[in-house]
Write a structure and sequence with these properties.
By secondary structure, this protein is an all-beta fold. Helix content is 0%, strand content 63%. It has no helices and 22 strands.
Amino acid sequence: MEKKNNEYELSYFAPDTVLEGTIRSAGDVEVAGEFKGEIEAQGKVVLRSKIQGNVTSDSLKLQGCDLEGDVKVKGAVSISEDSVVHGNVSADELQCGGSVTGDLLIGDDTVLEETAKVTGNIKTGTVAVMRGAKIQGGLETE
C-alpha cells in the first residue's frame, strides 16, 4: 500500500462484493460487501454489511452491520442502532446503539444508548446507560 501525505490510503470493498480470506492493512479499511475471514488493520475499520470473522484494528465503526466474530480494538468502537454483533468486544471505548451478544471488556468509557441491547457480561471503567437500554448479564466497573 502506498503512503500519501504520511497517511495510508483507504482500502474499500464495494457493495455486492463477496470476499473470503484475510485482510491485512497498514491503513484504513471499509467493507460494504459480504466478507468471511479475518480483518487486521492498523487504521480505522468501517463495516457496513454481513461479516463473519474476527476484527483487530485501531478503531471500528459498525453501520448496518451483522458481525459474527470477536472484536479487539485499541481505541473506540461505535455500533449503530441497526448493527448486530455476535461475539466478544474488547476496546478502550464503546458507543453502542445496536445489539451485542457476547462479553464487553472496555478499558475506559462505555455508553449504551436507548436502543442498545447487550446479552453478556460487561466490565468497564465507567458506564452510561440511557433509559431504554437493555442489559442481560453482569456489570462491573473499575
